[in-house]
Specification:
- By secondary structure, this protein is an alpha+beta fold.
- Helices cover 31% and strands 23% of the residues.
């Protein structure tokens, strides 16, 4: 039996690290945190007196006690899995001489290591803490040779955050329950993030579009078949200049006057200027930019990106002698830095692969306040492991993310791309007028690709027309187009993460979880790639802004993050940070709880826009534990409800007339089970023994309207699959039948011909 016990966080890491350390070590996992603040209440926990509904009532905050000016956390294993893990670790420790704690290299990892020491009552002086930023043989062995003790400052910062989030968040959440609805939550990070989404939505709602007009002219260029269309930029008069490209041309009448004048004007090339344009490579990726780029490139949400990055970090089985190998460095970082060793490896690779002219060594500059400069950016563990060399070893999404990380890392040390940018100016002089019209456009010609060798330009080079200075041009058509200003765009996950980082809300480890919490609480929802606030989210945001304006401000939240960083660096004491705002905050909470008016429940309704068949009032979208349905907004006066149908009939009921009982039978509805939605047949039913005696058809993906749209290969029902419903595939993939009998039909949605009567059935 191994005398050296290594405890890591994730079971997925154990195989990789075990393979590196060998048989003298035994690697086990804590499965994340083994303890958290206790959920059970005791007499000594913090109590806030409230008198809203009954005498001597109070809010009790489980897991945190307060004696004088001192906050005392109570830690506990709050579930059976954690208790089992602690018991297992205790057994392993008994049979080991030395314990190594190899949890993640951040504040949370340090906290997990401390919890293990405290819960297992280990000797701090003999228990060794090892930290590595990448799971490679060299990095792991070096970490074990240079073990240290747990960083008490990082642990104190973790405790401060945990207590702060519990006390502040718990108190605010409790005031939401009697005023809005139960089981709502508020928090130090999630609430100002929600407030920003709400602010954006109100900007969109209050937006008033403004009319403006664009003017383009088409020119015949040297007898080319395709005319050159160029936009009007300026209209210059003797006493004013109208900037058309700045939307200063406001009315149709004004636009048509200029169109008529242009039709009578003569055009000539009055300026040709060519300048070099340099395009620098992107910086290495940090957590926020990884999430942003993954969303923009692949439409991965933040949780998906971090899950894939975790897999790449923890190790991928490469087969042969390599075994399980960690492919990237730690993925929770706010640094753009690269180590000198990695920069040297990239330099060798670029020089060998291309030439020395493609190399430009640089160290990225961090633009993030409070970034941990000692940390590295997210990068490949080995530059020699190119994406193409690993294509067959990775799942498609893993490959996409690895390629993104590898490309950005290598490109960051390459030369800038160089272009010749030529700007043409075409001028028209109106007859019998002082008006002068200026058209201009630019085009780039690549003369040195630089980092574009690695990251190809998605846009093709502009075609540069063969024009000469003072050349007369023939205008063959003048076009005028009415346009309207557009409202600001809603946040998507990429732009929201960028905003959170820019104002100091949260940290790399919390961006994805914050967005997930807001979605899970139904404060926001994903719609066509954007994050849109729900009626519930609007009500919660407005309530918090009204009663907790300080906490909802970005400055307040960012200051809290700064204080936590100061604790982590030993510059500030935990108790002083917690006490600095506790008393006034408590007074505010008690006042809100006692005096805040209950929100009108109708503000929480989601209206469908359809009338109730019974009373004519508008239907609303509702859900309970097992169902999603539409119900009358005048409930309880009107009790009408209806299931939500997809418009598709069930393919499995088509040949079973005994199941066709009424007009609703055999339709596919949206159903809900254990909090998850799926599409299921209306004939689904279980008898008293829990055995299905009806139709069991179900699908996790949206079915196309059946039988109007059928699989062209087997005639079964089709569903939308892929991210955003980008593909159409046959549902007949029952793995209980022989493989040769399954249907493998699958095409891109854009290539599928929908039923002509109804078109796209989404």
């Amino acid at each position: 039996m191994a005398k050296n016990l290594v405890i890591v966080e994730s079971p997925s890491k154990t195989k990789t690290i075990q393979g590196i350390l060998g048989s003298d070590y035994k690697v086990v996992a804590s499965k994340g945190h083994i303890r958290e603040l206790a959920k059970s209440r005791t007499e000594n926990d913090i109590k806030l007196p409230i008198t809203r509904n009954e005498k001597n009532a109070h809010i009790s905050i489980p897991g945190v006690q307060k004696k004088g000016k001192k906050f005392i956390p109570r830690w506990a294993a709050n579930d059976d899995d954690s208790k089992k893990t602690i018991a297992t670790l205790k057994k392993e420790v008994k049979h080991s001489d030395t314990v190594f704690l190899a949890t993640d290299p951040d504040r949370e990892g340090e906290a997990i290591a401390w919890h293990i020491v405290d819960a297992l009552k280990l000797d701090v002086s003999t228990t060794k803490r090892v930290v590595f930023n990448q799971i490679t043989k060299n990095a792991v062995e070096t970490a074990f040779e240079n073990s240290k003790q747990i960083d008490d400052y990082l642990v104190e910062a973790y405790k401060a955050r945990a207590i702060q989030d519990k006390v502040w968040g718990f108190m605010m959440s409790q005031t939401l329950w009697p005023t809005i609805k139960r089981n709502l939550s508020a928090g130090r990070v999630q609430s100002p993030t929600l407030g920003e989404i709400d602010k954006k939505e109100k900007e969109i709602e209050s937006f008033v579009p403004e009319e403006y007009w664009n003017i383009d002219s088409k020119f015949e260029i040297n007898d080319k078949s395709d005319p050159l269309q160029i936009s009007l930029k300026k209209i210059i008069d003797s006493d004013q200049t109208i900037n058309v490209d700045s939307r200063e041309l406001k009315t149709e009448t004004e636009s048509m006057l200029h169109v008529d004048a242009l039709k009578e004007s003569k055009f000539s090339v009055t300026s040709i200027i060519t300048k070099e344009r340099r395009l620098n490579p992107p910086q290495p990726l940090r957590t926020s930019t990884l999430q942003q780029q993954a969303f923009r490139r692949f439409r991965f949400n933040s949780s998906r990106t971090m899950s894939l990055a975790q897999q790449l970090y923890q190790g991928i089985d490469l087969g042969s002698r390599e075994g399980q190998v960690g492919l990237i460095t730690y993925m929770r970082t706010d640094s753009n830095n690269l180590s000198n060793e990695v920069i040297s490896d990239i330099s060798d690779f670029v020089t060998r692969k291309f030439s020395k002219s493609y190399l430009h060594v640089r160290q990225a500059k961090n633009n993030v306040q409070g970034a941990q400069e000692a940390h590295e950016a997210i990068r490949p563990t080995y530059i020699s492991q190119t994406p193409e060399s690993l294509r067959d070893k990775l799942e498609p999404d893993q490959f996409k993310l690895y390629q993104l990380i590898w490309n950005n890392t290598v490109a960051s040390q390459m030369a800038a791309a160089k272009y010749d940018r030529t700007t043409f100016e075409i001028t028209a002089k109106a007859p019998d007028s002082d008006l002068k019209y200026v058209f201009s456009f630019s085009g780039d010609v690549l003369k040195f690709d630089g980092f574009r060798k690695i990251i190809a330009d998605q846009d093709s080079n502009d075609e540069i027309p063969d024009l000469k200075l003072d050349q007369a041009l023939k205008c063959i058509e003048v076009l005028s187009e009415q346009r309207f200003t557009k409202p600001p765009a809603r946040y998507n996950e990429a732009s929201l993460v960028n905003f959170m980082e820019s104002v100091g809300i949260g940290r790399p480890s919390t961006y994805a979880s914050t967005i997930k919490t807001l979605i899970d609480k139904k404060y926001i929802e994903r719609k066509t790639g954007a994050l849109q606030i729900t009626p519930l989210g609007t009500v919660v945001s407005e309530f918090l802004h009204e009663h907790y304006s300080d906490l909802m401000s970005y400055e307040f939240t960012a200051q809290m993050e700064k204080q936590l960083d100061e604790i982590a660096q030993g510059g500030t004491e935990l108790q002083s940070v917690l006490n600095s705002s506790y008393d006034p905050f408590v007074a505010n909470v008690v006042n809100v709880y006692e005096n805040a008016e209950r929100v009108d429940s109708k503000r929480l309704l989601v209206f469908t826009g359809e009338p109730c068949p019974q009373c004519g009032k508008e239907l609303t979208r509702k859900e309970d534990y097992n169902y999603l349905f539409d119900g009358c907004s005048d409930y309880p006066n009107c009790t009408y409800t209806q299931k939500i149908t997809t418009g598709s009939m069930c393919p499995d009921c088509e040949d079973k007339p005994e199941l066709w009982i009424n007009e609703e039978s055999g339709k596919i509805h949206i159903n809900k089970y254990m909090g998850s939605f799926f599409y299921g047949c209306s004939n689904y039913h279980k008898n008293e023994k829990g055995v299905s005696d009806g139709c069991t058809f179900s699908s996790g993906q949206l079915p196309l309207e059946y039988p109007k749209n059928k699989c062209p290969d087997c005639g079964y029902i089709l569903v939308l699959s892929g991210r955003g419903g980008s593909s159409v595939r046959c549902k007949n993939k029952n793995y209980r039948i022989p493989e040769e009998s399954r249907c493998g039909f699958s095409v891109r949605k854009s290539d599928f011909i929908f039923d002509q009567d109804d078109g796209d059935t989404e």
